[in-house]
Amino acid sequence: MTKLTHLIGILKDKASQSKAALLSKRTTLSLLRATSHDSFTPPTFRHLSTLLSSGNGSRATASTAVEVLMDRLQGTNNAAVALKCLIAVHHIIHHGSFILQDQLSVYPNTGGRNYLNLSNFRHNTDPTMWELSSWVRWFAQHIEQLLCTSRILGFFLGNSNSRNNREERVSGLTNADLLTEFDSLVSLVEGICKRPNPACNNGNRLVDEIVSLARGDWDVIGIEVCVRVSEFRERLGGFKFGEAVELVCCLKRLEQCEEIVVMMEGSRESRLWDSAKELKEKVGMGVYREEGKLVNESRKLRVSESDRFAARVLSYNDFLRFPSGRLL
């Protein structure tokens, strides 16, 4: 069954590519070559670069390239094709021109948000496709969060331009904006921790490519998280109570990811994890002290209010008495 499925995929690829060549559809042909039905081989860098170059001419050609790619992704029920389309989307995020990235960020045109909508993707024709389906679901979710975080940050994570003046940019943010960015980055880390186990795929090169891309994303995400942790340390004592509580919650979520990330990546970024833990303890102590002050103030307020209430109640001596001494 696996061999038959593979053969059918090859025939579909040849037929589709021949049709695109005859119709002189350059973008479609590039996409078909980059997203074949082969379930073990990732798209080559040359095919991905050709696909990107086909959408670099103008806003119209970029829009067409993104639309063709998304139509292929949403229209296929083949796990290998879906994964390769997702790799192409990931390639645009990291290596695409500004105009391609811009079109990707506003797709679909009617909504302005990119919903890949692959959380229920299933392909169960054989065990290989069943396993690849779990990678489709996870990688699609990862890319969705990557796009969401990139919108919040104002630049595409992993793009070479995002490396310039990180510290300077972050230092100019308000506490609220900095917390929003940090929360989104922590969500990305949490998503990485949900990655399927690559050991179950018997050295599939397509899966290896996904793992490699995610590892590269982690390298960038880790740096961005580290920069913000450092900035939070510079602002110690400058947070409102609610902001401090939110920061501690985010740092706790990040701390819970440490063991899984270290196990997946095979190395421990001590600077990040140690700095985050130290920051959590310091901010947490501030929150604890502030909570104590609020509790004490609340108690004083209750006691003061009780005194005022008692003062308003007549005492025994305040009752009117008749000469006989009996109470009225």
From TrEMBL:
CDD domains: ANTH_N_AP180_plant. It holds the Pfam family ANTH. Coiled coil: none annotated. One of its GO terms (molecular function) is phosphatidylinositol-4,5-bisphosphate binding. The gene is LOC113873326. It is found in: Cytoplasmic vesicle, Clathrin-coated vesicle; Golgi apparatus; Membrane, Clathrin-coated pit. Gene3D superfamilies: 1.25.40.90. InterPro entries: ANTH_dom, ANTH_N_plant, AP180-like, ENTH, ENTH_VHS. GO terms for biological process: clathrin coat assembly; clathrin-dependent endocytosis; vesicle budding from membrane. This is Clathrin assembly protein At4g40080. GO terms for cellular component: clathrin-coated pit; clathrin-coated vesicle; Golgi apparatus. It comes from Abrus precatorius. Keywords: Coated pit, Cytoplasmic vesicle, Endocytosis, Golgi apparatus, Membrane. SUPFAM superfamilies: ENTH/VHS domain. Residues 19-157 form the ENTH domain.
